[in-house]
Model the fold of this input.
Amino acid sequence: AQKITQTQPGMFVQEKEAVTLDCTYDTSDPSYGLFWYKQPSSGEMIFLIYQGSYDQQNATEGRYSLNFQKARKSANLVISASQLGDSAMYFCAMIGNHAGKSTFGDGTTLTVKP
Amino acid sequence: EPEVTQTPSHQVTQMGQEVILRCVPISNHLYFYWYRQILGQKVEFLVSFYNNEISEKSEIFDDQFSVERPDGSNFTLKIRSTKLEDSAMYFCASSEFENNSPLHFGNGTRLTVT
Done:
């Protein structure tokens, strides 16, 4: 069975500072992918970044980077230079060998302060 | 950029009625999914669909639910005899590959059962 744990229900960050959102996972699948999604108050799910379990380098997409530590089973999202528009719910998710059966964490609500 | 589109964006129905939620996945994607998010809660997997049949389904996806790809573009979720607890945001998603491939979500349909 797969499990995703996001231990931070809410986070605050000052505008222009960096913030790390934690995600730990558990799976018995040898190959898996880890994703982060952003859900603004409007409700849509926006794909941010992906890390494959066999990728040697940490994924980066613009201001988003994924700090992947396989031995610790963690896949933390780092947002650099936070903007007010980054205020949203952030979900960590994992997909393993089973087609599309992604497991989502409970989410972290990020609030960026001006 | 191609996107997943869902209609309607909001649906209000009376308890016991049937609803059909519609989705148009990204055209070159082969794998389709439905997820559900009860307000303020985590995103839950319902069903995955490939090659005109269900690949996997969760325990939530009971006989009340069915999915169909009636033509080459649409992917529908039917909920028969809706219950109050079916009120949620329903997300359609698609992916290009089966494993380790980002899920691209639609904007969701907010279903309210009264």
About this structure: Chain B has a mean pLDDT of 92. The CA atoms of residues 7 and 97 of chain B lie 24 Å apart. Chain B has no helices and eleven strands.
